[in-house]
Design brief:
Blueprint: E1 11-13, H1 24-39, E2 42-46, H2 52-66, H3 70-73, E3 95-101, H4 106-116, H5 122-150, H6 154-162, E4 164-173, E5 183-188, E6 194-198, E7 206-209, E8 215-217, E9 224-229, H7 231-236, E10 246-249, E11 256-265, H8 289-299, H9 304-312
Helix pairs in contact: 1-5, 2-5, 4-5, 5-6
Amino acid sequence: MGSQTPSQLPVVDFTDENLKPGSEAWLSACDVVRTALEDHGCFIARYDKVDKDLCSSVVSAMEELFNLPLETKKQETSNKLFHGYYGQIPFLPLYESFGIDDPVTVDGCQKFTQIMWPKGNDRFCESVNEYSKLLAELDHVAKRMVFESYGVDMKRCESFIESGNYLLRCLQYRPPQMDETDLGMQPHADLTMQSILHQVNNVEGLEVKLKDGEWIVVDPSPTVFVVMAGDGFKVWSNGRIRPCEHRVIMNAKETRYSMGLFCFNGDMVLTPEELVDEQHPLRYKPFDHFEYLRFFDKEKIKESDSRVKAYCGINFK
C-alpha cells in the first residue's frame, strides 16, 4: 500500500501570480520541474483554472457516459492503441475507460459525442472540450519549463508543442466487491510524451512510485494535477527524464472518476543537440510516436526502459 505523504512529491504552484516567464519564481519552478521529472518522473501542479462548476459538470458528464448500455460503449473503437473503449477486463474488473481523440477541438469532442449519443449531447461536448483545453494549457507551460530548464532553444519548444496530439481518457473505477482485488490499475509507466492526471471527483486511488521505490498516495484535492513524463520524454531528454511509474489502488467505497490528458507527438521526436555531449552520448534514434505505439501493441514489453531500448536504443560497442 502507498503511504500518505504527498509532500514527498515536488509541488509547483501555478496559481502564483508571480509565476511568469523570466521571473525569479518562474526560473525556480523550472528547476523544480526538471529535478522532479529526473528523480520521480512527475510533479504535483497546483492549478485552479478548472473551477468547481466545471469539475461538477465533468463529473456529471462522466456519470452519464459510464451509465450508457454496454452495447453503446463498445461502439467506440479506434485503430490507434488506447484510443477506444476498454472495459470488462478479467484481471482489471474495477476499471473502465473511454478515449476521446483530439478533445481540445470542438470537432473532436462532437465526433465522440455523436457515437455515444447519435441525437447529440451539447452539455457533454462543451464540458469535455472546455476541460481539455485548460489541461492542454497546463501541458504547454510544463513543456516550456522543461525546455528552458535544459537550455534548449525555445523556438523548437513551440514547434514541439504544436506537434502534440491529445487524447483524453475518461476513467472509472468502481469499488471492489467481496473477494475482489483492490487493484484498479496495475503499475505501469505511460507511452506518452507527457500525461496529466486529475482525480476529478476527489476520490483517492492514484499512487506513484518515488525514486527510492516507495509508493505514495496522491492527494485527490480538486486543484491537484499530476504532470507525468512518459517514454517519449525519456527519448527526448537523452535518458535524463524518468517515466513515472504509477498505479491505482481502490480502497474507496464509492466510484472513482479520473481524467487523463495524454500527449503523443505527431512529428519525429529528436534528442536536442544541447543534451548530447561527451558525458552524455546520444542514446536513442529518432522516435516516431505512433509507430512506437504499434511496436508496443505487437511486442507487449511492459517495462519502460526495456521497451524504449528495444524500439530505438543505440547499442554502444
